[in-house]
């Protein structure tokens, strides 16, 4: 069946359809989708294509999926599940499924919610909060809660100075006697810096970066970045960090996608990170997530348990760790 431009969500999808028709080597109907494989004749073309009908508008869409996305023959349910995962989700929001860790739910249009973790109650959410699980939140915590700590300020200053001296030693081509003078200064800063640490500091060994010193021995330094990170974590108390994260709970209005046709997502929680096509949120309680889009209209999806979720756009096949951290 041939389609016209007006049958598609946009000219972009229509052009993809034309390319898929031009390059197709094999076309398969898999559940509600049509899967175009471009074949080995175009081995350097990076993607295959999926044709489907948008549930909100009834218009057709065509999206690329990675060439390495293998869809098995002869097993319809397995092929359906695999194709959906290649597209970036596991279930449509209107389907019946168990809300559990590790699934991707297509909410509206090309908007997907990845369920990173599910909790029974708020207490379980709080026990999950830690600097290692949420490094971005911890960095914000350090800047806001530890900025007035005098020892932290001193250690950060010494750490920056140590990195500067270390970089200077590794890049310089100074005569030996002048280089030794810089090294004496570096060791003095190192001694002062490590006096603040009540833990063992790891040593690292590096060669000078100049091509003229390839035969020289490695120079010992301390792992200053690792030491600073350890120091910050020891300065912070878990109770204070958890209190800080919870205090950031607010009503969120997140926009994802192209600025001319963005998805608007409204919910209550803690924003973990936000990019053009990505936003993580910690939800401390069950709630309705309200969705709005210029083309797909307004909808709501109920999240039945406290959760840590990631909103993103449907697209290339996600890596496994994007679902299961």
TrEMBL record:
Superkingdom field: Archaea
Protein name (Swiss-Prot/TrEMBL): Uncharacterized protein
Organism field: Candidatus Aramenus sulfurataquae
Lineage: Archaea, Thermoproteota, Thermoprotei, Sulfolobales, Sulfolobaceae
């Amino acid at each position: 069946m041939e389609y016209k431009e007006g049958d598609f969500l946009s000219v972009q999808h229509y052009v993809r359809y034309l390319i898929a028709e031009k390059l197709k080597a094999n076309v398969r109907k898999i559940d509600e989708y049509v899967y175009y494989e471009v074949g080995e004749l175009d081995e350097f073309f990076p993607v295959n294509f999926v044709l489907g009908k948008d549930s909100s508008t009834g218009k057709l869409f065509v999206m690329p999926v990675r060439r390495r996305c293998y869809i098995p023959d002869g097993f319809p349910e397995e092929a359906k599940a695999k194709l959906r995962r290649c597209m970036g989700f596991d279930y449509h929001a209107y389907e019946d499924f168990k809300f559990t860790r590790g699934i991707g739910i297509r909410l509206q249009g090309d908007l997907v919610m990845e369920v990173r973790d599910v909790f029974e109650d708020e207490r379980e959410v709080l026990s999950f909060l830690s600097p290692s699980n949420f490094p971005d939140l911890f960095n914000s915590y350090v800047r806001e809660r530890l900025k007035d700590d005098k020892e932290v300020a001193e250690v950060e200053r010494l750490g920056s100075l140590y990195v500067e001296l270390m970089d200077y030693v590794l890049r310089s081509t100074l005569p030996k006697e002048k280089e030794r003078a810089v090294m004496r200064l570096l060791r003095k800063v190192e001694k002062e810096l490590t006096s603040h640490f009540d833990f063992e500091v790891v040593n690292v060994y590096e060669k000078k970066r100049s091509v003229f010193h390839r035969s020289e021995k490695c120079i010992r330094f301390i792992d200053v970045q690792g030491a600073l990170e350890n120091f910050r974590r020891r300065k912070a108390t878990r109770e204070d960090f958890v209190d800080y994260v919870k205090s950031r709970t607010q009503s969120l209005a997140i926009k994802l996608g192209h600025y001319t046709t963005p998805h608007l997502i409204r919910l209550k929680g803690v924003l973990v990170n936000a990019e053009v096509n990505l936003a993580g949120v910690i939800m401390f309680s069950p709630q309705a997530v309200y969705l709005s889009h210029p083309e797909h209209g307004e909808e709501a999806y109920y999240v039945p348990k406290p959760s840590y979720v990631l909103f993103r756009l449907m697209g290339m096949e996600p890596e496994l760790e994007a679902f299961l951290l």
